């Protein structure tokens, strides 16, 4: 008999089998491969090295006879240089695999054992064993998932989209919609603001044209298993989708990118009013000069007090059910229906904000993007259902607010960096009006508001104000070192920062909690994200070794625990980006159970499972190559949001929590995070034999920058 696998070995073998999966997927049915691998796990209560090795060798020998290839498909991609592939039409991506049932159940127990009380864990063990037993509900649901995988491009996408976004009834600002903050602009006057805006809109139109012709270069994976082409579908939701509120569930409305309404238009928000700006008139796209002229007209129209209408945009900041109820009332009137239709079919929103009156540091600029400062500032100058809202403030506060359901963070960053480069290249151009007399004036959207709608607006304004006051947010720039120092320790910057976040939470609270780190699975067709569960047993051991003085560990022992934590984080990252993590799989099993059973199996009502999905620490890496950063709020009332942007010489963190939770404090978290990062550096300097000035190969990067739990 072989021996039982430890965690690191399990990850390694799972990665190996996943590569085999890619090799044989085009030569055998996915049902055959998945059932075969699942059988290996199900025949032994523990993962046995000898069994796995023999089975992998058997598959490999068959694959070589069938394909005459010695190299797995995942590795083969590396032979084709990234520059050779320019269109998503040139690539064929594999389907997302369904992980083996026993593997997921085993990993689930390992992920939760150290996060729940011992008695609760023992109860969970029994429940999980019963669920995964031969002939039990797990086997039936697994088979149904495999059948679903054969029929669909991506078996988990719709389940995941509903669970992550569309079923969520919370308001979009802070709770769901992230923001990207640009470098502050120095506008000398209103015309400077409008020139910048015209340049921005021109860049949007250029980018949309690239999307319409499928001319956007294909993205390739970075970090672990780098070089593989990624699914580009998310890009086509940037300017052609809309989140429609529903009473119990929202709908993501999408139109094909090459089906465009004529004339194309964007919506400009100014002084809480909404205006239609046609960007194509008489089959001619407006120049930057034309756009500048039209924006000046909008500014003048928005200043007209006699024409001012109620701030309808406030309704979109409310809870999703409340907004759906209000929208039902609005659409009873044809004027309102027409206005809603113009917003929903628009390419994007451009929000011309008034000065906030606050000191313009990074924290306050981020708050303006996250919630607009409340109804009495710019909070009503938004339409949160639209995926892309570009904010251009008179005081130079600029950025993007996003409805997150159509795309992930890295897609947004790629788009924004393209736009900013376009704007930088065109900034020196002289913008002047041309063909002024031929341009029809922009149109103000009209609203007819009943007394009931007026009451709902007042309620929405009050809730937004409470949200503004409750958000505890700060931008923390750790300047002592950045990712270059981490690379010189031969460690992954992302894994290093994740371990630092775990150490920080333990420093503050004396425990670890379920943690979400979003990781891209775009190497698969229609892939979005899955979760890297960063609160590993190894991270807990390291945190205890660093904080608990009674252990009295030597520096060498602490360093070994540190390395173990980095390895565990890296291994789980590999599992996640190759489609073998547990969260999406458990979600699929649960939703399949809803469809086929009258009651959910105990595993999904067990307190451990409920705890596993309360992500007190919600994290995401969103790196940028230009001067900007991403931020978002916590996902539960007693949680933290921690978005980070590693740069060569510093790391920028956006820390969020809620003030009405007595357990959390963003400022205390930031302070403890700085202490953790310094302690880790000191430990590296003491124990790492590699001189910090010498070059070192970069370790794994989770590609967690490609999404988040939001």
From TrEMBL:
GO terms, molecular function: choline O-acetyltransferase activity
Catalysed reactions, semicolon-separated: choline + acetyl-CoA = acetylcholine + CoA
UniProt-listed SUPFAM superfamilies: CoA-dependent acyltransferases (SSF52777)
Region (Disordered): 688-710
EC numbers, comma separated: 2.3.1.6
Every Choline/carnitine acyltransferase domain range: 96-674
GO biological process, any: neuromuscular synaptic transmission
Active site positions, chain numbering: 404 (proton acceptor)
Superkingdom of this protein's organism: Eukaryota
Similarity annotation: Belongs to the carnitine/choline acetyltransferase family.
Protein name, UniProt field: Choline O-acetyltransferase
């Amino acid at each position: 008999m072989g021996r039982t696998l430890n965690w690191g070995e399990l990850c390694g073998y799972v990665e190996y089998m996943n590569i085999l999966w890619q090799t044989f997927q085009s030569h055998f049915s996915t049902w055959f491969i998945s059932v075969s691998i699942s059988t290996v796990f199900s025949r032994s209560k523990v993962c046995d090295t000898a069994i796995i090795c023999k089975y992998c060798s058997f598959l490999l020998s068959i694959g070589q006879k069938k394909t005459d290839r010695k190299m797995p498909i995942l590795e083969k991609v590396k032979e084709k240089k990234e520059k050779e592939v320019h269109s998503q039409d040139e690539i064929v991506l594999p389907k997302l695999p369904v992980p083996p049932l026993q593997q997921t159940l085993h990993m689930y127990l390992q992920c939760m054992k150290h996060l729940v009380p011992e008695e609760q864990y023992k109860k969970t063990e029994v429940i999980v064993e019963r669920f995964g037993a031969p002939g039990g509900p797990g086997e039936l649901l697994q088979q149904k998932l495999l059948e679903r995988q054969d029929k669909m491009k991506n078996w988990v996408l719709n389940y995941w989209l509903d669970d992550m976004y569309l079923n969520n009834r919370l308001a979009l600002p802070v709770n769901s919609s992230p923001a990207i903050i640009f470098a502050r602009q120095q506008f000398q006057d209103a015309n400077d603001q409008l020139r910048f805006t015209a340049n921005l809109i021109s860049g949007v139109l250029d980018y949309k044209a690239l999307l319409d012709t499928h001319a956007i270069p294909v993205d390739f994976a970075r970090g672990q298993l780098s070089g593989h082409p990624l699914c580009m579908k998310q890009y086509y939701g940037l300017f052609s989708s809309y989140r429609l509120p529903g009473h119990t569930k929202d709908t993501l409305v999408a139109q094909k990118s090459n089906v465009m309404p004529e004339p194309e238009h964007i919506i400009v928000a100014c002084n809480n009013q909404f205006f239609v700006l046609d960007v194509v008139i008489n089959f001619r796209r407006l120049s930057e000069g034309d756009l500048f002229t039209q924006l000046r007209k909008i500014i003048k129209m928005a200043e007209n007090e006699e024409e001012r209408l109620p701030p309808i945009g406030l309704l979109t900041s409310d809870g999703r059910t409340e907004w759906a109820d209000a929208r039902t009332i609005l659409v009873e009137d044809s004027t309102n229906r027409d206005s809603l239709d113009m917003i929903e079919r628009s390419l994007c929103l451009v929000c011309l904000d008034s000065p906030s009156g606050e000191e313009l540091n990074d924290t306050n600029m981020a708050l303006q993007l996250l919630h607009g400062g409340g109804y009495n500032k710019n909070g009503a100058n938004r339409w949160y259902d639209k995926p892309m809202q570009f904010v251009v403030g008179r005081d130079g506060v600029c950025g993007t607010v996003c409805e997150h359901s159509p795309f992930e963070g890295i897609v947004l960053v790629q788009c924004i960096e393209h736009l900013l480069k376009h704007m930088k290249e065109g900034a020196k151009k002289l913008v002047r009006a041309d063909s002024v007399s031929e341009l029809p004036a922009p149109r103000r959207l009209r609203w007819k508001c009943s007394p009931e709608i007026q009451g709902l607006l007042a309620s929405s304004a009050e809730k937004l104000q409470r949200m503004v006051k409750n958000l505890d947010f700060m931008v923390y720039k750790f300047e002592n070192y950045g990712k270059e120092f981490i690379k010189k320790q031969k460690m992954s910057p992302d894994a290093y920062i994740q371990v630092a976040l775990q150490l920080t939470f333990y420093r503050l609270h004396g425990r670890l909690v379920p943690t979400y780190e979003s990781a891209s699975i775009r190497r698969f067709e229609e892939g979005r994200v899955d979760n890297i569960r960063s609160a590993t047993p190894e991270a807990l051991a390291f945190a205890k070794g660093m904080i608990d003085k009674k252990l009295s560990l030597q520096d060498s022992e602490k360093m070994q625990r540190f390395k173990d934590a980095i390895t565990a984080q890296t291994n789980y990252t590999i599992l996640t980006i190759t489609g073998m993590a547990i969260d999406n799989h458990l979600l699929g099993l649960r939703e399949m159970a809803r469809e086929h059973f009258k009651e959910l199996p105990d595993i999904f009502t067990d307190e451990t499972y409920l705890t596993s999905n309360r992500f007190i620490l919600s994290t995401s890496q969103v790196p940028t190559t230009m001067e900007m950063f991403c931020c978002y709020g916590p996902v539960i009332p007693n949680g933290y949001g921690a978005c980070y942007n590693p740069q060569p010489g510093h790391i920028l963190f956006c820390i969020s929590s809620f003030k009405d939770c007595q357990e959390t404090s963003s400022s205390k978290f930031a302070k403890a995070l700085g202490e953790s990062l310094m302690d880790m550096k000191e430990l590296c300097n003491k124990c790492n034999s590699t001189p910090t000035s010498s070059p070192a190969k970069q370790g794994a990067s989770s590609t967690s920058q490609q999404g988040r739990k939001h």
